[in-house]
Design brief:
Strand 13 (356-359), helix 15 (365-373) and strand 14 form a beta-alpha-beta unit. By secondary structure, the chain is an alpha/beta fold. The protein has helices at residues 11-23, 34-44, 60-68, 87-95, 108-159, 197-207, 210-230, 244-247, 252-263, 276-281, 283-296, 314-317, 327-330, 338-352, 365-373, 390-398, and strands spanning 3-7, 27-31, 48-52, 78-82, 100-103, 163-172, 178-189, 193-195, 237-241, 270-275, 299-305, 322-325, 356-359, 378-379, 388-389. The strands form two sheets. An eight-stranded mixed β-barrel has the order 6-7-9-10-11-12-13-14, surrounded by four helices. Bound molecules: ligand C2E and magnesium ion (2 copies).
Length: 401
């Protein structure tokens, strides 16, 4: 049964309407003034409100304004009962958000017709809302299902040993020798061939699979470096990327400690790379996590520096050891250009904070010369070598590069 609220201060009119609507099978409530009407509307959320315009104290406009300003009652169907067919009065009511109006005196047919059309519209809206809700929950279900599939295919790939770690040399700019390797994951897909991390890391991050994958990369890289150290390349270090999901694992430092112990690698030979965006998410817990990692003896580097949204002041708050200048600042850098001013300032600032500086994406001799002149510590880029499989990296070590 539909509920109709009638707000009308003239008792005779109110009682007449209530009687008539009751006879039509509606559940009716009457209010004799605006305040009472408003509180009944808020409490009962009727299906239709019929409301007189002119009433003492709170008039019909006041009732309507209050209802429309509250999200819970904002869409309740509202029909004004006006004393005369005054156009300006009706306009004002419609502008405040009334759905319809009836001019007194009105016939039973007019009254029931106005209510019926409000109810019909409300039902259509409810149906539309339900359809939208079920469509959006279908979409959410669909997206969840797709992510589940991606996660399964990534986990399968890890079990089938389709992932590989490539190594890119980081070269000391003073000596020109390889000092460390950045571990970069690759997917050797049986049909699609080599897949770059940009294509699967975001999905791995979203599904949480990155935790397993990242740990596998860390284990593999630590073992590999121990292998090379045992072969005589004693001072070689390794840098491994940590994703936000990995970084915010509560037991991260224990996991890293276990991997280091199992591989036998000295913590001082491991550097963990983090991106700036990660730091601005939750500064306090980020600092706490970094301190736990540092307590193990590993170094922390800030990757892709300059591309995030964080302020420079955070460099003083976080216990970083290495700053990696993003490739976009290095590409085509020449003296006198804006990039040159930025890179010089970054190097100087980093050094004054006792940070080591590595330039990423060095592709030309001119870029390398610039960095050498301005005292950058190390470089990484295609000029020296792209990321390569372990066997090729070993060859570079043997050749004394
Ligand atoms: P990144 O950590 O900033 O790694 C450097 C990227 O720059 C690598 O791309 C490398 O191949 C590329 N690069 C190096 N030198 C040059 C150059 O001279 N020119 C150009 N154009 N590019 C150069 P890659 O290997 O495709 O990796 C992309 C990103 O994927 C990495 O950026 C890192 O954020 C992420 N990633 C890679 N491996 C892992 C991993 O094991 N774990 C996590 N969490 N992320 C990873
Ligand atoms: Mg990196
Ligand atoms: Mg980078």
């Amino acid at each position: 049964m539909k509920n109709i609220l009638v707000i009308e201060d003239e008792e005779v009119i109110r009682e007449n309407i209530l009687k008539l609507l009751k006879a039509e099978g509606f559940n009716v409530t009457g209010a004799e003034n605006g305040m009472q009407g408003l509180s009944l509307a808020m409490a009962n959320l009727p299906d239709v409100i019929l409301c007189d315009v002119i009433m003492p104290e709170l008039d019909g406009y006041g009732v309507l304004t209050a209802l429309r300003s509250n999200p819970v009652t904002a869409t309740l169907p509202f029909v004004f009962l006006t004393g005369k067919a005054d156009r300006s009065e009706m306009r004002q009511g419609m502008e405040l958000g009334a759905d319809d109006y009836l001019t007194k005196p009105f016939t039973k047919t007019e009254l029931v017709g106005a209510i019926a059309s409000r109810l019909k519209k409300q039902e259509a809206l409810a149906e539309q809302y339900n359809t939208l809700c079920s469509q959006s929950s279908d979409l959410i279900e669909d997206a969840r299902y797709k992510l589940e599939l991606i996660k399964k295919s990534l986990s399968g790939a890890l079990e089938r040993e389709e992932f590989q770690v490539y190594y890119q040399p980081q070269v000391n700019l003073q000596t020109g020798k390889i000092m460390s390797a950045e571990a970069l994951v690759r997917w050797m897909h049986p049909e699609r061939g080599l897949i770059a991390p940009a294509e699967f890391i975001p999905a791995a991050e979203e599904t949480g699979f990155i935790v397993a994958l990242g740990e596998w990369v860390l284990q593999t890289a630590c073992r590999q470096i121990i292998g090379w150290q045992d072969a005589g390349f004693l001072d070689l270090r390794v840098a491994v990327n940590l994703s936000p999901r990995q970084f915010y694992q509560p037991d991260l430092s224990n996991r890293v400690a276990k991997i280091l112990e199992a591989s036998g690698l000295e913590p001082s030979c491991l550097e963990l790379e983090l991106t700036e965006s990660l730091m601005v998410q939750d500064a306090e817990s980020a600092i706490a996590s970094l301190q736990k990692l540092k307590a193990l003896g590993v170094s922390i580097s800030i990757d892709d520096f300059g591309t995030g949204y964080s302020s420079l002041s955070y460099l003083t708050q976080y216990p970083f050891d290495v700053l990696k200048i993003d490739r976009c600042f290095i590409s085509n850098i020449i003296d006198g250009c804006n990039k040159a001013a930025i890179v010089k300032a970054i190097i100087e600032m980093a050094h004054s904070l006792c940070l080591e500086v590595i330039a990423e994406g060095v592709e030309t001799e001119a870029e390398k010369d610039f960095l050498w002149r301005y005292d950058c510590d190390a470089m990484q880029g295609y000029l020296f070598s792209p990321p390569v499989p372990a066997a090729d990296f070993e060859q570079m070590l043997i050749e004394g590069k």
